[in-house]
Amino acid sequence: SDVGSQKERVVTEEEWLQKWEMGNIGFHKEQGHPLLQKYLDVLLNGRSGLRIFFPLCGKAVEMKWLADMGHSVVGVEVSEQAVKEFFSEHSLPYCEEPVPEISGAKMFQSTSGNISLYCCSIYDLSSSIVGKFDGVWDRGALVAVNPRDRQRYASLMINLVEKNSSYLLVTVSYDPNKHKGPPFYVPESEIKSLFG
């Protein structure tokens, strides 16, 4: 599969932080994603009180939606601004504490305790820090990680999920020779080789 000029493209952490600072966040959706609503039953699989992971969560409104349903939501986001905006836009009180295992990282937790957002690089996380998850909502994470980091990302995600978990993944399909990304084009064959 031809991924065009994207294979070598690297977007730095600083560039992501700058997108948030400049308000250049076209990837953020004010309304819940229709595909999550459509496939919610697949994610939950008849289960309640799940631990659901939001990789590269930004300030996704679906986090509150799922928490309000009684699930425990954990997200990771490099931008502290995004995390704080999530809590303020939903008028959710929270506390902030350092993450001892990760230098410079912070964890923001709703005072109700059902939403915990880690502010750090996703690659600093491990199951010993955040535990394992019953479900993952990956809307814009795999397509945002640098193409050269996909294997590392997929390995981490596989390590973070329970055996009977559900993983919902949204990708975008387009001619990678016409756009430099992100979002990056991830061919279906590559998704299969990454996640099996």
Structure, explained:
It is a single chain. The protein has 196 residues and is α/β, with parallel strands linked by helices. The mean pLDDT is 95. It contains eight helices and seven strands. The chain is globular and about 45 Å long. The chain has one domain: 3-Layer(aba) Sandwich (Rossmann fold). Strands 3-4-5-2-1-6-7 form a seven-stranded mixed β-sheet.
Order of secondary-structure elements: HHHEHEHEEEHEHEH
Per CATH, which architecture? 3-Layer(aba) Sandwich
Estimated radius of gyration: 16 Å
Based on secondary structure, the structural category is: alpha/beta
**What is the mean pLDDT?**
95
Integer tally of domains: 1
The 3D shape can be described as globular
CATH fold category name = Rossmann fold
> Unreliable stretches, pLDDT < 50, 5 or more residues?
none
For CATH, the homologous superfamily is named as Vaccinia Virus protein VP39
GO molecular function: thiopurine S-methyltransferase activity
Keywords: Cytoplasm, Methyltransferase, S-adenosyl-L-methionine, Transferase
InterPro entries: SAM-dependent_MTases_sf, Thiopurine_S-MeTrfase, TPMT
Protein name: thiopurine S-methyltransferase
